[in-house]
Design a protein that fits this description.
Formate dehydrogenase/DMSO reductase fold
Length: about 525
Amino acid sequence: MTRRALPLSLAFIGLLLTLLSAGAALAHAQLRSAEPRAGAIMASAPEAVRLVFNESVAPLQARWITPDGSVHDVEARSEGDALVVPLPDDPGQGTLVLSWRVASADGHPVGGTHSFSIGAPSENAGVVRETGAGAATFAAFAKFVLSAALAFGPGGAFALALFAANADPARGARRAALIASALVPPAALLLAAATALDLSGRPLNELAQPQPWMLLAQGPVLGTLVTAVLAGALAAFSLSGRAARTAGAGALGLAALSFALSGHAATAEPRWLATPAIALHAGAALFWIGALPVLLSLVACGAEKAPGALARFSRLATAPIAALFLTGGALAAVQLGEPAALVDTSYGLLLCAKIACALAMLALAGLNRLRLAPALAKGASGARRAVSRSIGTEIALAMAILALASAFRLTPPPRAAALEDEPAAYVHLHGLRAMADLVVAPGRAGPNAISATVFDDTFAPFDPMEVTVLLSLPARGLEPVETRLTRGADGVWTGTGTMLPLPGIWTARIEILIDDFTREIIEGEMEIAL
């Protein structure tokens, strides 16, 4: 093995350690069924409610609001892919509302509400208020901060060891890498706090309570945070000049590994492909992004080493950049499930924006290699300024990519809808005088059954005169498919045989005839899979 190849080999050896953590994990947890059914009217209280998901879940919170308006926190338990929630003592007669929250296999929280009645519906059922609003967005921002710190800290430290060892003009880049490395622990702490709030559903003023941190300690995100902090520490050691290449390679490997220990992509199936792919993908990206400030510093200062450093980066970056796009393609195929999801889902649109930024970076890198770097080596007029602008633009695009990748946390990947045991499509629609839980099963293109549980404006089930559902797909020019529902003995309105010919984001419109003179119309969107 040549001396030049050794640092790169060391950087990626650690990435293969991710295989040791590979196991059986599925997609973002989604509710498949519940017993008793939502909106059901029971003659007597059951011992517990059983919520069945598409994967194993861990209970985070279970809270009942009983007909008298009192709130009861209970201890739920997991039984495989089911969550069993006991009822509070003496729940009384009327409508009970359960607010539940569980952790998916990828560590992200999922929550919802479930209600049914004992004896008869209450006139004023309890209303579950949202808590911890904005925690997911806060966590996505914290993830972006940590990603940037890892890119310019460990990534920059490794690049300095390769391209600017003992180079005085790179002092600015060295200082920036040291600052970024020092920011890794506070950034990890910021992400820990945001994740703890997101998992527990607690507001910011309850962050000092033990429960959010206990939930964080039970999930996979903790491994990501610890590994990231170790990467930052090793990068700082590398920047001290001692064993710079070896320590820098180790820091880069640990930083890449941290991305593979939690998140949507890290828990996708097939796990043997997704887990190492996300680690290799992250490692290649960190190598590329971390090198940019180093190269910019050398070029901007007019260093003699600049042309040689650019040429060496072009040679060494070929394999990592190829790995970046190959693993990115594999992960996209796993996460999307089908090409149409690129334009039919929020996740796909985010991915399109990320791909566009990556291709723009690739185009600039090609321009540097083929035209600007040779011109700089020849001392051409204006070459240094042109190269500096090009690398600066690459850095801006890299920051945009990190932000878009962090935003993936806010939307489940389309692969969840492609699972064979995926639950039916569901949406909660809210109006001024009425609301409804709408379920379309199996939630895929083709014939579907529709059910709707209707509530009044106090979240209490009530009995309207008529319920009609209209489903349309404006993006594909499909006019509304109308289904008039029939009320069942359990109070749930149902209809069968509704043909939805195409997948996509459908507009759901429910027309509720409350009385002879009052009609409530509520609308929303729901995703129908292929």
